Amino acid sequence: MNSASSLAVDHLGVQYRMVKALTNVTCSVNSGRLTGIIGPNGAGKSTLLKAMLGLVLPTSGQVMWGDKPLKQQLDRVAYIPQRSQIDWTYPATVWDVVLMGRIRKTGWLKRYSTVSRRLAADALERVGIANLKHRPIGQLSGGQQQRVFLAKALTEEAEIFCLDEPLAGIDKKTEAIVFNILHELAHTGHTVLVVHHDLGQAITNFDDLILLNRELIASGSREDVLTKNNIQRAFGGHVPFFESNAA
Fold this sequence. Notes:
It contains eight helices and ten strands. The protein has helices at 45-52, 94-99, 103-106, 114-127, 142-155, 172-187, 222-225, 228-235; strands at residues 6-16, 19-30, 34-38, 60-65, 68-69, 77-80, 160-164, 191-195, 208-212, 216-221. A hairpin with a 2-residue loop joins strand 4 (60-65) and strand 5. The longest helix has 16 residues, at 172-187. The protein has a single domain (6-245), classed as P-loop containing nucleotide triphosphate hydrolases (Rossmann fold, 3-Layer(aba) Sandwich), CATH 3.40.50. Helix 4 runs antiparallel to helix 5 and helix 5 packs parallel to helix 6 (172-187). Helix content is 30%, strand content 25%. The model is unreliable at 242-247 (pLDDT under 50).
């Protein structure tokens, strides 16, 4: 595990043509903690994650991990995009997709090692879909599809895990499995960052939060971020959320 204790986001900004999607975001993402990125629709949650990983080009700022830019260390990152960004008609089985998590360590067009196959099999067991190993991915439910890509991420043996709305449209069983695994990763010292789409009960699973509305509203522990003032600033008006989450 890298000795770096946090991802340092420093004055990160993103602009699409003439529209500022993010302005001057500065925050830290600590290892050993499960961190959620939250905010209203259009707040720039996915944009922040993609800008951190270099998937969209920032107009300002940088992201550091240890003493190097994160974009120079992407071999240490496992990224799970939104399910809507994945081509589910691609002719691949569950096993094919999970093994893709070993390509960086194996190399293209090379045979997967016994270790890689064992890691893939263990990951499928861990997410509870080993029985679907030979199923085409297009025949899976939304929750099963999400578990496939979580298994793929696990096989990468990454140090940083970045997930873009992994809980959208999934069943409660899958949600519980996803959170259990993310907590296990955090507790073993990994850096885990998740874009989350609402303020429902699931938000209590996060240790830390980054609250956005095109700029940083607040970051830190869940208790410190989910204050009525911060929620009002981010969402405006009355936003129903569990009062026990608020300071």
